[in-house]
Write a structure and sequence with these properties.
The protein is an alpha+beta fold. It has 2 domains: 116 residues, D-Amino Acid Oxidase, subunit A, domain 2 (D-Amino Acid Oxidase, Chain A, domain 2, 2-Layer Sandwich); 120 residues, FAD/NAD(P)-binding domain. It has 5 helices and 14 strands. The strands form 3 sheets. Strands 2-3-1-9-10-11-8-12 form an 8-stranded mixed β-sheet. The longest helix is centred in the N-terminal third of the chain and has 14 residues. The chain binds flavin-adenine dinucleotide. The site of flavin-adenine dinucleotide has 19 residues, from strand 8 and strand 12.
Length: 254
């Protein structure tokens, strides 16, 4: 976790309005002090000192390892092909490795939850929203905060490794060099388009069958909210008690 704050002057930053609690409008000099390698510090930016960033891949790997260490069985390279339904009740999943029985099933499969739930008559309003993530090797400390400039978001996820979010087709190296001095040696390590799950009305978390045998968790800020959502959902699934904090996130039951 890097508590590095953020600096934003992209279209979504609200740089022309009231910044809101915990956010501050800063001028060119302050931007230059916060990000000394910026070629052309903007006239105004929104500074949020409390913002932080993580390396989502490293977080996912750490969580899987921790679950395994606590006794979870992890199967990789196995595709869930459908739900196992016995006498009208979800009783597990079917996968490329066979059937897996379970008293309770939680689907946390991003956009795939729509297809998996459909045979039960559950229509989840979730679409895929493609976004391009690029990982680059660059001098450590080049980018200090989470920088959101028009057409390019950049942050350092570990010393010497940056993660950028860019529109399709934009040259990542050129975008970084255009923003920062000292990025000439930067090289692309990975360039991938991810399909972000985008529910129409915000996060969908909770049981999707009245007997609470099947649950879903699908949301757009799936990294930022994962710790909270996972903790609340675990309380519900294990404790058999729905918590008030998730009341606004319930899927419509068939
Ligand atoms: C460029 C980019 C920038 C982003 N920035 C942010 C950000 O700043 N903050 C934030 O919170 N979020 C961000 N996101 C979104 C975030 O990545 C998603 O919200 C998050 O990944 C959703 O997590 P998830 O586990 O629900 O789904 P996913 O990450 O989609 O994971 C689903 C998993 O289920 C597996 N799966 C799917 N179907 C099956 C099946 N049938 N059988 C077995 N396995 C299956 C997939 O292989 C995958 O591993 C960003 C995404 C991108 C692409």
């Amino acid at each position: 976790m890097r508590w590095c704050g953020s600096l934003a002057w992209d279209e979504a930053s609200g740089v022309d309005g009231e910044p809101g609690e915990g956010r501050f409008l800063v001028g060119r000099d302050e931007v230059a002090a916060l990000e000394p390698a910026l070629r052309e510090p903007p006239e105004r930016a929104v500074h949020t000192p409390s913002d932080a960033g993580v390396d989502p891949t490293a977080v996912a790997e750490a969580l899987v390892a921790a679950a395994r260490a606590r006794g979870a069985k992890v199967r990789t390279g196995v595709r869930v092909t459908g739900l196992e339904v016995v006498n009208g009740r979800v009783a597990g999943v079917r996968s490329s490795a066979g059937a897996h029985r379970a008293a309770r099933v939680v689907l946390a499969a991003g956009t795939e939850v729509v297809r998996l739930c459909r045979p039960l008559g559950v229509a989840l309003p979730v679409v895929g929203s493609p976004a391009r993530g690029v990982r680059m090797a660059a001098p450590a400390g080049l980018v200090r905060s989470v920088v959101a400039a028009p057409g390019c978001e950049a942050r350092e996820v570990r010393d010497g490794t940056l993660r950028l979010t860019l529109p399709p087709g934009r040259d990542a190296g050129a975008a970084l060099r255009g923003l920062f001095r000292g990025a000439e040696e930067a090289v692309v390590l990975e360039d991938r388009v991810g399909n972000r799950p985008l529910p129409a009305d915000g996060p969908i978390v909770g049981p999707v069958t009245r007997d609470r045998a099947l649950w879903v968790a699908v949301l757009h800020p799936g990294v930022t909210l994962a710790p909270t959502v996972a903790r609340l959902l675990a309380e519900e699934v294990i404790g058999d008690r729905l918590v008030a904090e998730l009341a606004g996130c319930r899927p419509a039951l068939p």
